[in-house]
Write a structure and sequence with these properties.
single chain; 258 residues; mainly alpha; globular
């Protein structure tokens, strides 16, 4: 392939994009966090109910809102990546209802897959035993499917693809770059570890006792969501774009402009 996918070039490009757009990305992450926390507050203190139907309806509304926010964040990143070519307005980063619905469908498909894997795990455990072997096989299967399908959301945002079409497209662009894609996500996990571990250690040194461990990890999560999460999402979107360019065997505009 004339335009091969490069892990090092992907990370370098993502870093350059983050540096140029750090403030809007962090602000939008903070807004997203506030909305998610507000929904949790409503669910816990305002709309709490033992009625299963009420819980299901609120869960669906919460899922739709979270999918809308997630898609808008992806659209924001893509827009910031392309902004050198055109001016954009706030409405340009808002996903359509169709995109949101497609994301929700992807969520349901993921839930079905998890249920199937749990079923086969329980079945295998009862019939042949070897719990560790079954867990290892399913872990590898989940890792493989996740890496091959991770960019389906990107296609929903960027191409307005349907759920099945977006999954097909994601599998297609990762077909010849599975281990390189794995390398990118290994780097993301490494970044999360080197950032979160010192943060958790520092917060713990402030004097929290064991009864407040949940609070420690919550503050660490807030820090990750606002500061680290934007970088990881930029890496994912840049990886997506570069895999598309590599698959189409065309010049990489991201490298040229960043």
């Amino acid at each position: 392939m004339y335009h091969p996918f490069s892990v090092a070039e992907t990370i370098k490009t993502a870093w350059n994009i983050l540096k140029k757009n750090f403030v809007p990305l962090v602000v939008y992450s903070a807004i997203s966090l506030f909305v998610n926390e507000f929904l949790e507050f409503l669910k816990t203190f305002i709309f709490f109910s033992d009625d299963m139907l009420t819980q299901f309806i609120f869960l669906m509304l919460q899922m739709i809102v979270q999918c809308f926010i997630g898609l808008s964040f992806y659209k924001l990143i893509l827009t910031l990546m392309d902004k050198e070519y055109y001016e954009f307005e706030f409405k340009d980063i808002l996903p359509s209802f169709k995109m949101t619905l497609n994301f929700v469908i992807i969520g349901f498909l993921t839930g079905i897959l998890v249920a199937i894997l749990v079923f086969f795990y329980v079945l295998g455990k009862r019939t042949i035993g070897f719990d560790s072997l079954i867990e290892a096989i399913e872990l590898l299967l989940v890792l493989y499917i996740s890496l091959r399908s991770i960019f389906c959301i990107c296609f929903i945002v960027d191409d307005d693809s349907s759920p099945i079409e977006s999954l097909r497209q994601s599998f297609e662009i990762t077909k010849d770059n599975f281990f390189k894609t794995l390398g990118v996500f290994a780097f993301i996990i490494f970044i999360m570890a080197i950032v979160l571990i010192p943060v958790i250690a520092f917060i713990s040194l402030l004097g929290f006792d064991e009864n407040k461990e949940g609070l420690v990890f919550r503050f660490a999560f807030y820090f990750w969501f606002v500061i680290v999460f934007p970088f990881t999402q930029v890496i994912i979107m840049v990886t997506y774009r570069k895999l598309v360019y590599s698959h189409q065997d065309v010049d990489d505009d991201l490298s040229e402009t960043n």
